[in-house]
């Protein structure tokens, strides 16, 4: 298989490339990135800021995309009034979805961002959270 074929297959199977058109699930977006609630949260507020263009690693992205992702993280932290939080970006190590994204996780009073036992939200719970976050981000 040629390198181009591998890239094409990667794009076709990329979960985040598919989700960028799911307007019901997207909390907020700009030209370069979009925000989703993480289905497997590590904290009560665990959001994903995802580049619209497919990059696997941070250093592969262009400066404008990276800048807009950071601006989005700042916007979310301010709008959601997060006092303690952690921003995480994995580059292959522990990167489940091979598409550049950032985790924004609210920390507890001790600074621990992994404050809940990880589990998958049910469809109903997920829809409720999406609705709540969309209202907070208006």
UniProtKB/TrEMBL annotation:
Chain ranges for the short sequence motif Histidine triad motif as given in the UniProt record: 99-103
Protein name as it appears in the record: Hnt1
Domain spans labelled HIT: 15-115
Biological process, per Gene Ontology: nucleotide metabolic process
PROSITE patterns named among the record's database cross-references: HIT_2
Organism placement in taxonomy: Eukaryota, Fungi, Fungi incertae sedis, Microsporidia, Enterocytozoonidae
Active site: 101
InterPro entries per UniProt: Histidine_triad_HIT (IPR001310), HIT-like (IPR011146), HIT-like_sf (IPR036265)
Residues in the signal sequence: none
PANTHER family, per database record: ADENOSINE 5'-MONOPHOSPHORAMIDASE HNT1, HIT FAMILY PROTEIN 1
GO MF term list: catalytic activity
């Amino acid at each position: 298989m040629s390198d181009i074929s591998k890239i094409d297959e990667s794009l076709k199977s990329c979960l985040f490339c598919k989700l960028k058109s799911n307007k019901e699930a997207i909390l907020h977006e700009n030209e370069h990135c979009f925000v989703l609630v993480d289905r497997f949260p590590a904290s009560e507020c665990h959001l994903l800021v995802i580049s619209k263009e497919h990059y696997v690693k941070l250093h592969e992205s262009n400066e404008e995309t990276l800048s807009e992702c950071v601006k989005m993280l700042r916007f979310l932290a301010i709008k959601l009034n997060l006092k303690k939080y952690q921003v995480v970006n994995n580059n292959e190590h522990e990167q489940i979805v091979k598409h550049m994204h950032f985790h924004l996780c609210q920390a507890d009073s001790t600074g621990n961002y992994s404050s809940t036992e990880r589990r998958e939200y049910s469809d109903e719970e997920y829809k409720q959270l999406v609705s709540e976050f969309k209202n907070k981000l208006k």
